[in-house]
Amino acid sequence: MKICFIADPLASFKIAKDSTYAMMVEAARRGHELHFMLQEGVMWKGGRVLGEHCPLSLTGSEDPWYRTAPARQAPLCGFDAVLMRKDPPFDAEYLASTWLLELALREGAKVFNHPRALRDHSEKLAIAEFARFAAPTLVTRLERELQEFIDANGDVVLKPLDAMGGHSVFRVTDRDPNRNVIIEMLTGDGTISIMAQRYIPEIRDGDKRILLIAGKPVPHCLARIPKAGETRGNLAAGGTGVARALTPRDLEIAAALGPTLAARGLLLVGLDVIGDWLTEINVTSPTCFREITEQSGFSVAGMFIDALELAVKSTAR
Length: 317
Hints:
Layout lengths: L1 E5 L12 H11 L3 E13 L2 E11 L7 E3 L3 E4 L5 E4 L7 H15 L4 E2 L2 H6 L16 E4 L2 H11 L1 E6 L9 E4 L5 H9 L6 E5 L8 E7 L2 E2 L2 E6 L14 E6 L2 H16 L4 E7 L2 E6 L6 H8 L3 H17 L1
Parallel strand pairs: 1-2, 1-6, 6-7
Antiparallel strand pairs: 2-3, 3-4, 3-5, 8-11, 9-10, 9-11, 12-13, 12-14, 12-16, 14-15, 16-17
Helix pairs in contact: 1-8
């Protein structure tokens, strides 16, 4: 297969833990042809969706870990699979990319995850569809509602709807002297909606990343344990990742969400679960492949490329 990865600049990859890199390695091992494209390389030109891309080869070394041939333009429908792996934020440019990628689908391109599903699933707000698994949650930009939620729950987490990696996530209690200014800052003085969730003490045991591939759970999650003095488990915020077998509750959540999300064209999903509670449904560029594989021995990238190959074959019929 010819596989094109739309992602952040290759020079920014930290290959020791990058899941997109793990996908590339497994795809190359199977003899698939790799291509790379930046988000800004997707364009509508001459009545077709084209991509400015570079053929990509892996060196097997750490530095440099890749080589690229000169850039060229080609219709996205000319690839067997296009993997949208651009990291958030989900901004106006990301939204425009989903429109272009959906046009490419109509021309015969095979895009994963499905661009409409990427557009329709807010990684924070998507839990509303599965509220029975979520801790008490509020999404609003109204200060009075946020203040009432903090008072009612006593200890909460406030976070923006469009960030990743624990960026701008605050734990706020009803006695916090900074609660007003935190709300003002996150909401842009009432112009930006944010999410408030009741604080879940089980975060001390880790914020679990459960990966769903074609609707089925990877048998191990990565529990991201906060560093001392921190309430965020995100690896980008200094958390430590520990691979663990899924619990019965993890499996219950995965079984309830997996088929529904897969039916919408979400080949890869990252569920965030703290204790028994679902906190996020990540669909843009879920990670933790390498950490889970290195600690458990289970090839997450192998399971993913298996699913990708099957999805491409099924859409070709």
